[in-house]
Design brief:
- Pfam families: HAMP, HATPase_c, HisKA.
- Its EC number is 2.7.13.3.
- It comes from Actinomadura fulvescens.
- It catalyses: ATP + protein L-histidine = ADP + protein N-phospho-L-histidine.
- The protein is about 55% helix and about 10% strand.
- The chain is built from 8 helices and 7 strands.
- It has about 400 residues and is an alpha+beta fold.
- The longest helix is centred in the middle third of the chain and has 50 residues.
- Helix 7 packs antiparallel against helix 8.
- A 5-stranded mixed β-sheet has the order 2-4-5-7-6, covered by helices on one side. A two-stranded antiparallel ribbon has the order 1-3.
- It has 3 domains: about 80 residues; about 90 residues, Helix Hairpins (Orthogonal Bundle); about 140 residues, Histidine kinase-like ATPase, C-terminal domain (Heat Shock Protein 90), CATH 3.30.565.
- The two termini are about 65 Å apart.
- The C terminus is likely disordered.
Length: about 400
């Protein structure tokens, strides 16, 4: 015979009933003791009875009246105590049974929201992550649990939606160079007598598409690596890293104003360099022909900040947050995206910052352009570095 599961409702009912019986038994014992002592203290004074003759002269069937009175009082007290104990135990048994039944009902009512949470969790799948518990009632622990569960479902829905969008966009971006390559090859094969010039043009187009494909794959690998977390830590001066990036970057005819101060951090040198490259590349690509870029690096209050401010077309403030999502590009309010852009630059910046335990903020300048700031924990001399966990990329704050 299989026993029923020892559910939480059954355990709570047993706990309620056991506590009630224990407290009731203690109450009966205290009442019995107090009543017994009260009877003893309130016993009436024995009346003075006539004395009997001495035993040699007393009849054998004649007992001492004083002894008989004491025995009668003792029997009456014992009967009263026995009756009190019997009635108290009977009342305790009846009330305990009622308490167990009420405890079972109350436990079931109190655990009903948990059953709703369990039922919702069982119904959930990737197709209905928009379902919520939406538990009403007072603001207690179960209400807080349900609200936390709803918030977790919201984050999961957003993560799955971002993943689906990422896969769709990545598939499209990866398919585009292949389509260009195939079209170039088809055009060359359609010509029965291709010339050296046409074959050279085909090779140029295929090489350009291949380079675009390689850059996209490299960006995807960098994004995946940064979101996985930092595995190799070194002492890095972020100012020196930015200076090296500035030397190797083609800033066209833009006016670049560097304001770099020593900023020691602990992190992956390659990822931190990629962070600086992507910020500077974003500022160069989306700028005016005669625009400017200001780069600031400094350490203060236990953190290192890298701030890149650039001129450029006006970006709607409500669009700033989307620029940090993969494959998101705002071409309407910004300069046209060149063939080099895949919409991954700022999303990689956000992922690298989060992987190093930092944050990022961004704001659209009213005059045009962006103001992006990345904050990282500063390296304290003489103190061992605390490796931050791999966190998901935080959203930009405008």
């Amino acid at each position: 015979m299989r026993l029923p599961p020892f559910t939480l409702r059954l355990r709570l009912t047993a706990l309620y009933g056991g506590l009630f019986v224990a407290v009731g038994a203690l109450l009966v014992a205290i009442t019995y003791g107090l009543f017994a002592s009260r009877l003893q203290a309130a016993a009436p004074r024995r009346p003075e009875l006539p004395r009997l003759p001495p035993a040699p002269f007393r009849p054998q069937n004649l007992r001492d009246p004083q002894v008989m009175l004491d025995e009668a009082l003792a029997r009456q007290r014992d009967q009263a105590l026995d009756q009190l104990l019997t009635q108290s135990l009977l009342a305790l048994a009846i009330v305990s049974l009622i308490a167990v039944v009420l405890g079972w009902m109350v436990a079931g009512r109190a655990l009903r929201p948990l059953r709703d949470i369990t039922a919702t969790a069982r119904r959930l799948s990737t197709d209905n992550l928009d379902e919520r518990i939406a538990l009403g009632g007072p603001r207690d622990e179960i209400k807080e649990l349900a609200d936390t569960f709803d918030a977790m479902l919201g984050r999961l829905a957003a993560a799955f939606e971002a993943q689906r969008r990422f896969v769709a966009n990545a598939s499209h971006e990866l398919r585009t160079p292949l389509t260009v390559q195939r079209a170039a090859v088809d055009v060359a094969l359609a010509d029965p007598e291709p010339t050296l010039r046409s074959l050279t043009a085909m090779a140029v187009r295929i090489r350009a598409a291949t380079q675009r494909h390689e850059r996209l794959i490299a960006s995807l690998l960098t994004l995946a690596r940064s979101e996985r977390g930092v595995e190799h830590y070194e002492d890095v001066d972020l100012a020196e890293t930015v200076q090296t990036v500035l030397v190797g970057t083609n800033t066209r005819d833009l006016k670049v104003v560097p304001r770099l101060r020593p900023a020691p951090v602990r992190g992956d040198p390659a990822l931190l360099e990629r962070l600086a490259v992507n910020l500077l590349d974003n500022a160069v690509r989306h700028n005016d022909p005669d625009g400017w870029i200001e780069i600031r690096v400094r350490a203060e209050n236990g953190s290192v900040t890298l701030r890149v401010v650039n001129s450029g077309p006006v970006v709607p403030p409500e669009k700033v947050e989307t620029l940090f999502e993969p494959f998101r590009r705002h071409a309407a309010g910004r300069a046209a995206v060149t063939s080099d852009g895949h919409g991954l630059g700022l999303s990689i910046v956000a992922a690298i910052a989060a992987a190093h335990g930092g944050t990022h903020t961004a704001a659209a300048r009213p005059e045009g352009g962006l103001d992006v700031t990345v904050s990282l924990p500063a390296r304290v001399p003489g103190r061992a570095a605390v490796h931050p966990p791999s966190w998901p990329a935080a959203p930009a704050r405008g």
